[in-house]
Amino acid sequence: MILGLGWPLVFQLLVLGCFTGFLAGLLGIGGGMLMVPFMTLILSAQGVPAVLSVKMAIATSMATILFTSISSVRAHHARGGVRWDLVRTLAPGIVAGGLVAGAGVFAILKGTTLALVFAVFVGFSATQMLLNKKPHASRQMPGPAGRFAAGGIIGFVSGLVGAGGGFISVPFMAWCNVAMHTAVATSAALGFPIALANTAGYVVGGWSLENPLPGSVGYLWLPALLLIGATSVLFAPLGARAAHAMPVQQLRRVFALMLYALAAYMLYKAIRG
User: Is residue 40 helix, strand or coil?
Assistant: First the structure.
């Protein structure tokens, strides 16, 4: 037993953390798209109802970004890639949007609805990855009000699907003539306020929830958070190193097909619910 969990379950969570962390580093994406379907499956196997397992999976996935974003930001900052001026101006909107999503809309929506939203989001992201679509830079970054609104959308959507926001923030910044490598690095830095605001929202929104599993706080499953967070932090740098020695474009195609399968699973959960 560790953290109140049996060894088979601990092993599953550790493997999930290793897998998602490595792929996040290898492909430059957040682990939420992988983690949420597998966490939903694990929670369902523990007897958590479908309407709640999806919510707990999304919330726990988002909270792990608190761990992974720190190590990622340090690496990007050391290379001078982060536009901290964009982080400062986008973060307030992100926090506002994240709190609205995590503490408000997330608690109101049914788990089956969130599963449908997640399936659509992952399917779209998989298509973008498969086609390797990049937006054409056609304008400059908006002013303070526009950045607050953009941050609000990024934080809100991220909170509903348990992702770090990279699939929204990177295309947005690239569209606004921010260099791609700078957009990726800055998106990594935005992951922390996204995760912080939404995690706080999940705790507040689910505070009165009857905890279905030991170690649950609101919609968060803390033992899974600690195990997945610890291993994903260790394996994300390994994935980043491997990216320089592997045919990443081919891996993106394989990964996109896997995302389609995971999106289909979440769509099945939504329809079944």
Answer: helix
